[in-house]
Amino acid sequence: MSSSESQNLMKGSSAFSVKSIVNNAGIGLALLLLILFFSVASEFFLSPNNITNILTQITINLILAVGMTFVILIGGIDLSVGSVMAFAAVIAGKAITLPGLGTTELILLAILAGLVAGLICGLVNGVISAYWALPSFIITLGMLNIARGAALQVSGAQTIYSFPFAFEEFGSKMVFGIPFVFLLALALVAIAWFVLNRTVFGRLIYAIGNNEEAVRLAGHPVFWYKVAAFTICGATAGIAAIVYMARLSIASPIAGIGFELNAIAAVIIGGTSLAGGRGSVIGTLLGAFIIGVLANGLILIGLSDFMRQMITGVVIIIAVILDHYRAKLSSS
Amino acid sequence: MAQAALTSPSDDLLLDVQDLRKSFGGVHALSGVSFSLKAGEVHALVGENGAGKSTLIKVLSGVHPYDAGSIELSGEAFEPSDPHFAKEAGIQVVHQEFNLLTDLSVAENISIEAFPKTRFGLLDRAAMKRRARSALDAIGLNDVDVKTPVSRLGIAHRQLVEIARALQSESRILILDEPTATLTERETSRLFEIVAGIKAKGVTVVFVSHHLDEVFAICDRVTIFRNGQTIATENIADTSPEGVVRHMVGRTLSEQTKELNDAICDSIVLSVEGLQTAASPHPQGVSFDLRQGEILGIAGLVGAGRTEVLRAIFGADPIQSGQISRNGNRISISDPRDAIAAGIGFVTEDRKDEGLILDMDIAANTSLVSIKDVSVKGLLSFAKERLMAIQGGARLKLKYGKASDPASSLSGGNQQKVVLAKWLASHPEILLLDEPTRGVDVGAKAEIYAILKDLAAQGMSMIVVSSELPELITLTDRLLVMSEHKVQGSLMPEDYQQEAILKLAYGQSETPEGQNQ
User: Fold this and answer.
1) Phi and psi torsions of A42, nearest 5°
2) How far apart are CA A257 and CA A86, in angstroms?
3) Residues of chain A with pLDDT under 50
4) Would you tell me which CATH number, out of the four given (3.40.630.10, 3.40.50.300, 3.90.1150.10, 1.10.1760.20), belongs to the domain B12-90+171-249?
5) CATH 3.40.50.300 spans which residues of chain B?
6) Residue B82 has what pLDDT?
7) H-helix or E-strand containing B275?
8) What is the pLDDT of residue A10?
9) What is the distance in angstroms between the Cα of B73 and the nearest Cα belonging to chain A?
10) Cα(A130)–Cα(A81) distance, rounded to whole angstroms?
11) Is A201 on the interface with B (CB under 8 A)?
12) Sheet holding B91-94, edge to edge
C-alpha cells in the first residue's frame, strides 16, 4: 500500500467523528449562547468561584448520564439510577464505617462495595429486560423501587456519616482550580467516547440500537451487549454514589431522588435519540453542561428554583423537537 | 360452496377504476391499475405479495390518496379523502389484521363507530344490543351472545363480528382482505356461506386471497395483479388455476439453453434431513443435499415454507426436529453464530429490517459479520475496515461515493450488493440467499447473477429462494419446489418448465384430490 493510499484510508476513518462534531455543533452553540447570555446578565457568572460551583454541581449528573448514554443508545432506558446510587451509597457507607480496619483499606473497600452494588443492580436490569425482551422502562421502574427500598432497609432509614478524613478530602480536592471529582467525570466521558467510537463493543452498541435483528443475524451475541450496557449504567451509578458521599460526607438512603430524570435529560438534550442507535457521549457532556449552566445561571439572575425547573423542562422539549428535525434531515 | 357462483351478477358497473397510480417516495406501488366491479358480484384480487392489492384497497377505503387515474362509483367520480368518507359511500373493509377492541363486548365493538345515545346523551345500551343482535343475525351468526367480550371469541368468530360490523351500515362494497388466512377449513366454509348470503342481498364483495381454490369456489371474476399493475380480469368460468398462475408469474419462460455448471463436485457440503420448525410444521419435514459449487433453487408460492427452511438452517429460528450435516458431519445450529462458524452466510429477504443498518456507513455494514478481521483485541482498525469495504465494493462493482457514506444513500441494487459484500467478507462456503434481487433494477440483477455464478464456479455452494421463476431458471443448477412446508418435487435444468414447476408449487402432482371441491 502506498503512503498516499494509507493516508486516504486514515482520512476516511475520521469521517465518523467529523459527522459527530457537526451533529454536536448545534448543542455546543446553544451552550455557548447560554454562557454568553448569563455572563452578560450576571457579573458573578464567570467568576472562578461560580465556575467551580457549576462544575461541582454537574459532576454527579454527568457521571450518571455517561452510563445512561449506553443504555439509551441500545434503545433502552434506565429509570433506576437515582435509587441505585442511593443503594450503592448506603452499602459503601456501611463498608466505610466498619470497625477495626485501617483508613486505606476502608476507603478501598467502600469504593469497591459501592461499585459492585451499582453494577449488580445494572446487571439485573439488563439480564431481565434482555432475556425476556421486556421494556426496560418497566423493569427499571421496578428496580427504582427495589433499590430505594433496599437502601432504606439496609440503613434502617438512617443517614450514615463520620467517614475517614482522607475520603472526604478527595471530594473537595481541587486540581488547578478544577474540582477533582469533575475531572474524574470528564475522564469517564473520555473513556466512554473511546469505547463507543473506537472499539468493536461500541460499534455494536450503536448497531444494536439501529437494527438489532441485523446484528443478531450477523452472529453477534446481542443479549450480552444489552446486558453490558445496563451493567455499565449501574456501575456509573455506583461511581456517582462514591463521589456523592465524598462530597457531602454522608450516605443518605433518600439521596438521588429524581436524578434519573436529569441524567436522561442530559442525554436527550445532548442529541442522543431515545429510539437508540444515534447520539454521542460528547453530546451528553454538553447536555449536562446545559442543564447545569441553566440551573446556576437562572438562580444568579434572580429567578426562583421553580422557574428554573420550568425552563429546564422547556429546554428538554425543545431539544427533542430539534432532534426530530435533525433525524429527518439526516435521513433525507 | 359452489352455490355462490350460481346467481349471476348484473352487468351494471358499480365501480370503475382506470389507470390508477400511486407512489410512496420513489416506490411505485400502483403503476396502472384498472378494474371494475359489477353490482352483486364476488370479485377476487390475486397476485404476489407486494403486487399492489393492499395499496389498491387502501386507496379505495380512503387511507391513501391516489396520484393519477380515475375512480368512478356508480358513474360518479369518487375521490375518498379519508376512511370515513369511503364508509359513507358504502365501501367497507375487513382488514387482514383485526381492528376489534378485544376487552370490549361484541355489541360495543359493533357500535364503536357511532354509539346509540339516549335523550340525555348517555349510552343507550338497549339500542346498542338490539343493533348488534340484528347485525349478527343478518349474517346468520345466531349463536353468539352480544354481551360476550371479543377476547373470548375464536379467530373465526372475530372475523365474522368484523364482517357484521362492516355490514350493519348501508354497504355496497365489502372488501375482505385475506379473510381465510387464519381460518380452519370448517370456518372457511362457514365464511363462504355467509359471503354467499351477503351476495344474495345484492352487496358486491371483493375477495383478496392467496388460495386459488377458494377463489374458484366462490368468485365470479378474478383480477390478477403483478408489480403494481393489473394484468388481466377473467371470468372464473372461463379460466383455470393454471391460467391465473401464468398471469401472476408473468413472462413466459425463455427457452434459452443453460450452460451447465461444471464446477459442481460430488462432495456434499450440506445435508438437511427432516427439518421442521414451529413456523414450518409439516410432519415429513424438509430433506435435501447441497453439493460443492452447486446453486440449488427453492421455488414455491409465498407461504410454502421456503424462507423458513433458510432461517432454520442459519439458526435464525429454532429447529424443532431434523438434522443438519456439514461435509458429512452432524452439526447443531441453535444461533446464527453457529451457522457462521460452520461457514454459512445468509443474505436475507428484507434488506431494511434484517440485512442493513441503514444509518451506518457502507464500511461499517460491510464489516458487521467479520468485525473481528478489522479489529485487534476489540479495537477497531478503521483503515482495515475501509479497505475491506473498498475491496468488497470493487469485487461486486458497487456504485458508491465514499465508504463513509451511509448505506441509506445507495440504490436498492447497491444496497443488496453491500449485504452481499458483508457476507462475502466472512468467506462463507455456503451462501443462503432469500429473494436476492427483490427491488433491484434489471441491470443490477444481471450483475448480481453474474457474481453469484462466478462464486459458484469458484466452489461456493448456494441455496437461492426466489419468487421469480426466470431468476431461478437462469441461476440454479437444480430446483426444489416446495408446497405447504414440504418438498413437493425436485427438477434438473432439462426439466425446467413452467407447467411442471407450477404444478408442483400448487401441490398437485402428489395430492390430486386437493381441496378443490
Assistant:
1) -135, 130
2) 8
3) 1-17, 332
4) 3.40.50.300
5) 12-90+171-249, 264-343+428-517
6) 87
7) strand B268-277
8) 39
9) 38
10) 18
11) yes
12) B91-94, B173-177, B204-208, B42-46, B221-226, B229-235
E strand or H helix that includes residue B14: strand B13-24
A29 touches chain B (CB under 8 A): no
Digit-coded pLDDT (tens) for B212-231: 888 898 999 999 988 788 98
Identify which of B340, B353, B382 has the shortest CB distance to residue A13.
Answer: B382
**SS3 annotation, chain A:** CCHHHHHHHHHHHCHHHHHHHHHHHHHHHHHHHHHHHHHHHCCCCCCHHHHHHHHHHHHHHHHHHHHHHHHHHCCCCCCCHHHHHHHHHHHHHHHHCCCCCCHHHHHHHHHHHHHHHHHHHHHHHHHHHHHCCCCHHHHHHHHHHHHHHHHHHHHCCCCEECCCHHHHHHHHCEECCEEHHHHHHHHHHHHHHHHHHHEHHHHHHHHHHHCHHHHHHCCCCHHHHHHHHHHHHHHHHHHHHHHHHHHHCEECCCCCCCHHHHHHHHHHHCCCCCCCCCCCHHHHHHHHHHHHHHHHHHHHCCCCHHHHHHHHHHHHHHHHHHHHHHHHHHHC
CB A168 within 8 A of CB A249: yes
Asked if A207 and B368 come within 8 Å (Cβ–Cβ), the reply is yes
Q: What are phi and psi of B204, to 5 degrees?
A: -85, 135
| DSSP conformation letters of B137-175 | HHTT-TTS-TTSBGGGS-HHHHHHHHHHHHHHS--SEEE
Closest Cα of chain A to B409: distance in Å?
Answer: 9
C-alpha cell, B126: 338497549
Q: For chain B, report the end-to-end CA distance as a whole number of angstroms.
A: 8
Q: What is the phi/psi pair of residue A161, to 5°?
A: -145, -165
Cα-trace Rg, chain B: 26
CATH code of domain A20-331: 1.10.3470
Backbone φ, ψ for residue A311 (5° rounding): -65, -40
Q: What is the 3-state secondary structure (H, E, C) of B50-77?
A: CCCHHHHHHHHCCCCCCCEEEEEECCEE
Query: How is domain B264-343+428-517 classified at the architecture level of CATH?
Result: 3-Layer(aba) Sandwich (3.40)
Q: Tell me the three state secondary structure of residue B361.
A: strand
Is the entire prediction scored with pTM above 0.80? no
Whole-complex ipTM: 0.86
What cell does B66 get? Answer: 391516489
Give the residue carrying C-alpha cell 360495543.
B108
| pLDDT mean over B254-258 | 45
Phi, psi angle pair for B187, to nearest 5°: -65, -35
Residues ≥6 apart with Cβ < 8 Å to A169? none
Q: Which of B380, B387, B402 sits opposite A203 (nearest CB)?
A: B380
Q: Where are the domains of chain A?
A: 20-331
Contact status, residue B346 vs residue B504, Cβ threshold 8 Å: no
Looking at the partner chain, which of A9, A200, A221 has a beta carbon nearest the beta carbon of B371? A200
CA distances from B35 to A108, B13, B49, B166 (A): 79, 10, 19, 23
A–B CB contacts, 8 A cutoff, strictly below: 95
